[in-house]
UniProtKB/TrEMBL annotation:
It holds the Pfam family UTRA. Keywords: DNA-binding, Transcription, Transcription regulation. One of its GO terms (biological process) is negative regulation of DNA-templated transcription. GO terms for molecular function: DNA binding; DNA-binding transcription factor activity. It comes from the Bacteria. This is GntR family transcriptional regulator.
Amino acid sequence: MFASKTDNPLRVPSVIVRAEQRTVHQADGPVRAGIPEHGRIPRYYAVKVRLLELIEELGQGAVLPTERELAERFDVSRVTLRQAVTELVLEGKLSRRQGSGTYVAGPKIVQRLSLVSYTERLRRKGIEPGRNLITLETLHAGEDLAGDLDIEPGADVIHIERVLLADGERVGLESTYLAAQRFPTLLEVFDPSSSLYACLSDKLGVVFAEANERIETVLATPREALLIGTNPALPMLLLHRVSTDAGGRPIERVRSLFRGDRFSFTTHMRADD
């Protein structure tokens, strides 16, 4: 039967199944994951659940009531409320704007992992891509980089570092390394504000065939956080990629750092993969 209702704003609804003496929670929400086995719900998490309900009611772009108003509504301290709000900011469900308030964030940009350029992936979703050049230089390859690009250690490599934009918003930071000997004219024909993939394909005749990619979660360094314009405590998605042509020859090594509150990635798998 249903648990009795209460005016306590921190109460999390549940259904009691007497036959098995266990609690069944909603299947599509965040409640079950936040409740420890002993059943005692952290106070901040109960507030977080209520905030998620409020976010759904308000809708994208709406401003959240003030911290004082929410603390009074949920009958909790501001410290407890702040912890719940901070988690929702880190998860990308809320966004803070200095001097303005806290807003309901829009949906994350969902990207499929594929051999398609950042430019093309965003345009397919109706989002305007952009880039701000940070670094364009020639360096000497260390052993690891040389191994990835199949060149001798100490050989020249072209390093291109750019802030990635989505509809004018800074969402990531990308560093690309290419063998200078293989692409001696790249710096003459490449426009840093445009797609590198398009330049390699259309102007230099490069055909991308395969790529090995690894994803992990990290925190941005102070420099990276400053360039992307985000809180250093915000989780980031870090992608490492080495792309090759049809002959298996490395084309590039890329390190892409994306805001975890704005991006998620999908892939398709088969049984024989």
